[in-house]
Amino acid sequence: MDKIEQQLLQYVDDHKEEFIKFLGDLVKINSITGYEKKAQEFVRDRIKGYGFETELVEPDVKKMFEMFPEVAQVPSIGEEGLDMPLMTEDKFTYEQLMASPYDRLKSYKDRPNLIGKLKGKGGGKSLIINGHIDTVPVGDRSKWTHDPFGSDIKDGYLYGRGAVDMKGGVAAMVGAVEALTAIKAPLAGDLMFQTVVNEEHAGGGALGNIAAGYKADAAIVAEPSGPGGNVILNGNGGGVYWEVRIKGHETHAGSRWQNNKPFGISAIEKAALVVDSLISLEKGLNKDKTMMSLCIGTIKGGTYATATAAECVINGVAYFSPDLGTGKDGIVKVKKMLKDAALNVDDAWLRANPPVIKFQHYDDAYMLPADKQEIKRFTEDAIRDVLGKEPVITQLGGGCDARHFGNQGGIPAIVYGPGDIKMAHSTDECINLDDYIKGIKVLAVTIYRWCK
Ligand SMILES: [Zn+2]
User: Fold this and answer.
1) Per the count of CB atoms within 10 A, which of 13, 262, 288, 414 is most buried?
2) Ligand 1 centroid vs 97 CA: distance in angstroms?
3) Cα gap 380→378, rounded to integer Å
């Protein structure tokens, strides 16, 4: 550890209470997906004070769909019914979105990303540090034992919606850049600070920054990578949200059989065959390693006990490993697999009345390329030196914004940030404050070493 690094750690130790207060103040600002602006202004005002050149930029939806047609998602809002309302048989298009009745989802009006630039003195490597400012909704308020916007502290944990996912990470980024600028750590490379909107449900904030052309030699996404401060995620799984609609032939129970043949066909009995086919796909893929986790989420069908069901609708999600394919290739492949499994069922009725499969949302999977490991190595070394622990490398099961930096931006990206992802999206969401302070230290040292 050089002198500057020791000063950074000392600065963080001397300002722990202020850093915890800042995190508490940020959690108190409700920034549920769709309502991010106030929290963005709060963070902007803070980093402006450290000498960052700041800008609030609304992501350009049209440009995202033009540049990344297989990956771009509909902007979403974290309220029931507006969450992910569009369905598509192939992929979403900007024209579909514009023709839809969902006016509030057609742009990122009043939902800006925050961009903060700190110019290096030249000749060094550049870095993006990124976090999302939006949070999932509160859910059932009556189940919370802490105010979701109260930032209560108890037994070393701070409670509130977004505490760990990921206002802890955003506040750790703020803490790290405060420490770096306060002690005037000399940086040669440019540092870009980004907080983005709509990570939850869509990823349109980070993809908007890629479409806008912001570049760097590497990116660190400060999502909670694991408890203890020594976990790095070098990839994430993908996800495809699907719906299958199956037709039946509605008749009264009394006329179900005619001439020794079924005449009334319940869509529900046919849905069972489709479910079997989807589950066989999953089983076949997972013989040696878990490649897909297929969740049959909901099933709805039928009207009366005495009538064969005219329709049955099944909803679910398929999470998939980066080994099945990263970027747009993985999405295209998994959508095709699901479509084939839902449509190729050996049944005369289903062949004559093929089910319709549609997609509601899809995230691409990501792996840090084998020949672009430098940012991971820098973070591993910082973990060893700051915490005296061996780093643990793993991947996130679901999607996160690192995918857009890596897959669409071509920027080597890892996830490193404070806290345990298991606490995310839950009732009484909380972050361990020791993890938070460790995260600030490791981030500060990593940024300094990368950019110096
Ligand atoms: Zn998150």
Assistant:
1) 414
2) 25
3) 5
> 398 vs 350, which has greater pLDDT?
350
Cβ atoms of 439 and 229 within 8 Å: the answer is: yes
CATH assignment of the domain containing 311 = 3.30.70.360
Model confidence at 452, pLDDT cuts 50, 70, 90, reads very high
pLDDT above 90: percentage of residues in the chain: 97
User: Quick one: tokens of 293?
Assistant: 């986790």
Q: From CA 99, how far away is CA 103, in angstroms rounded?
A: 9
Examine the pLDDT at 449 and tell me if it is beyond 80: yes
pLDDT of residue 84: 83
Which of 317, 332, 363 marks a domain boundary? 363
Count of structural domains within the chain? 2
pLDDT at 435: 98
Give the whole-angstrom CA distance, residue 307 versus residue 386.
Answer: 68
Residue range 25-67, pLDDT digits in tens: 999 999 999 999 999 999 999 999 999 999 999 999 999 999 9
Give the domain range for residue 309: 238-363
Instruction: Please indicate, yes or no, whether residues 284 and 232 belong to a single structural domain of this protein.
Output: no
Question: 356 and 374 in one domain?
Answer: no
**69 and 218 fall within a common domain:** yes
Please identify, among 342, 363, 384, the residue that sits at the C-terminal boundary of a domain. Answer: 363
Q: Please tell me the predicted confidence (pLDDT) of residue 83.
A: 80
Give CA–CA dist 273/295, Å, rounded.
16
Q: At 128, which CATH number?
A: 3.40.630.10
Q: How far is the CA of 2 from the centre of ligand 1 (A)?
A: 33
Q: 114 pairs with which residues across the strands?
A: 56, 195
Ligand 1 centroid to 164 CA: how many Å? 8
For ligand 1, an ion, list residues with CB under 5 A.
165-166, 223
Cα 399 to averaged position of ligand 1 atoms, centre (Å): 9
Distance between Cα 198 and ligand 1 center (Å): 10
CA of 178 relative to ligand 1 center, distance in Å: 22
224: CA distance to ligand 1 center in Å?
Answer: 7
Residue 194 CA to ligand 1 center (angstroms) comes to 14
Q: Which residues contact 137 (CB under 8 A, 6 or more apart)?
A: 32, 33, 78, 79, 161
Query: Coil, helix or strand for 150?
Result: coil
Q: What share of the chain is helix, strand, coil (3-state, %, to 5)?
A: 40, 25, 40
pLDDT digits (tens, 9 = 90+) for 201-257: 899 999 999 999 999 999 999 999 999 999 999 999 999 999 999 999 999 999 999
Q: What is the pLDDT of residues 295-314, one digit of tens each?
A: 999 999 999 999 999 999 99
Are 347 and 245 members of one domain?
yes
